[in-house]
Every structure is written in C-alpha cells, then in structure tokens.
Amino acid sequence: MSFATYPNEMVGLADQIWRQLESYHDTTYFVQECRDAFKEVGIKGGWARYFAGRAAPMGEASAGAVAAAFYNFSPKMVSNSIPAAWEVATPAQYLEARLVGIDRAMRRLIAPWIDTEEIANAADAITEAVLSADPAGKVLFSANAGLEVPSSPHLKLFHAATLIREHRGDLHNSILMNNDISGVQAHVLMVALGHGTKEDVISMRGWNEAEWSLAKESLTERGLVAPDATATPLGKELRISIELQTELASARALSGLGTKKAEAVLGHLVPIVNQLRKSGELPDFTTLREEFGGQ
Question: Using CA atoms, how far apart are residues 13 and 17, in angstroms rounded to an integer?
Fold first, then answer.
C-alpha cells in the first residue's frame, strides 16, 4: 500500500529509497549464498535462520523480547526458534554469517557494481543520514545501529538498508499500537482489504484459527471489518492513515539528505537494485508488501 502524492517531496523520495533498499536487504532471507552461510554455523530451517539472523543484533534475547520487537509474528512461532538458536551459535556468529552471505551473494548478483563510486556514495550518504535518526523507542533499529559499520561499500549498503527497514518497522509497530491494532489484527485488516489470504498469513506468521477469529471479532465490533470479513470504509480509512503515518515518520531518518542528495542517492540505487531484481531470486516486492505488510 503506497501513496501517489505526499505532503512534501522529501517524503516521496524517502519512500522510494526505502523501496530500493528493502530489496537489497531482503537478499539475506532468500538468496542461496545467505542460506548457506547460516547453515555453516549450524542453524537449520528457514524460519530459524530468519529469527536468529534478524534478532542477533539484540544479543541473546528471550523469545518474549523477540516477539515484542517483531510484533506481527505469533509468540508461539518465535518460541519455536528462540532461544534455541542461541544454543546452536552465538549472536556474533549469526551476525558474521549474515555479512558473509551478503558478501558472497552480492559479488555474484551485482558484480559490475561492487567497486563503483555509485554504490560507495549511496552507502556513505544513507549510513550518515540514518545513524543520526532518533533511536528512542526503536528496538531493532537501535540494536543494529550499535553494530560496527562494514568498510566494504556493498556491505555498508546492506547495513544501511537494514537500519532503514528496521527504523521503519519499529515506527510502524508503534503506530499500529497507537491505533490499538495488534499484530494479528493488522493482518486481519490487510486481508479484509484484499491483500493476501488468511491461510497465507497463518502459515507465514504463526497465528492460529482461534486467534484470527478473535481478532476479526474485535475489529468487527469496532466497525473496521464487516461481518463478511471485508473491510468497512472506516477500516480502509484507518489502514491508509496508518500507512501514511508510517511513511511520514520514517522519512525523518533520511531527512538529513535533503532533496538534491536524496535524488542523487536514488539515482545510484535504481540500477544497482534493478540488477539485483533481474536475478529472479527475490520474491516480488509488491506481492510481499501487499500480503504481509509491516515487517
């Protein structure tokens, strides 16, 4: 869900930069080199790899802490992987595996761009801007911001992409909470709007039928979802408001760029990420966002 118009140019540019960086970051979840790097430290299974790699900046966090930070995953799903992952390898080892996988993957997928000024300039500008963002209340962003910044431009850009996506995700969760929308309710509302299916969300986020039904009942009582499970005009209005609030708030992380530098950064990113997407190894960005939203 996105918007054709914005209150100012910088918000629109920040959203476009985030969309490019999201694909760059998502490489860590889907590309074979990244999977292999985690297997080398002993972690097995896609979701175990996901939770361990993404939560590792928080240290040996409990299942409860990870579920709170990830928000729209069922705590039961989180507990299938955390804290067991910390018995397989340390958070530091997972962080190293994350970079090893990205290094191998990017050297194959975007080889022509690895040592260019474009990737170096984009990485430097975004990292400088996002590290000046206010960390208060942003758990995953703050945890990643405390990590050492890689020196290689393609790894530095991955670090910057991770900071941007976690900054946005933390803000999105806060905005959902401020609007009294729980993690499972956020999914129910998105499905009610025609994005994704209940079956897909239950499979991908771990909520069960009873939890889904309770969330739907609550949203129906609030007038956000109709009895036929479609979104009411009020429900659609609320979801649009939540997305717009997220875009406005998350744009602050890149506001230090200014519009001219943001345009230049976007110009650097587009051909690099287009090369990455042409590999066919990443799922379609729009499909993922429409089906699962938020994180």
Answer: 6
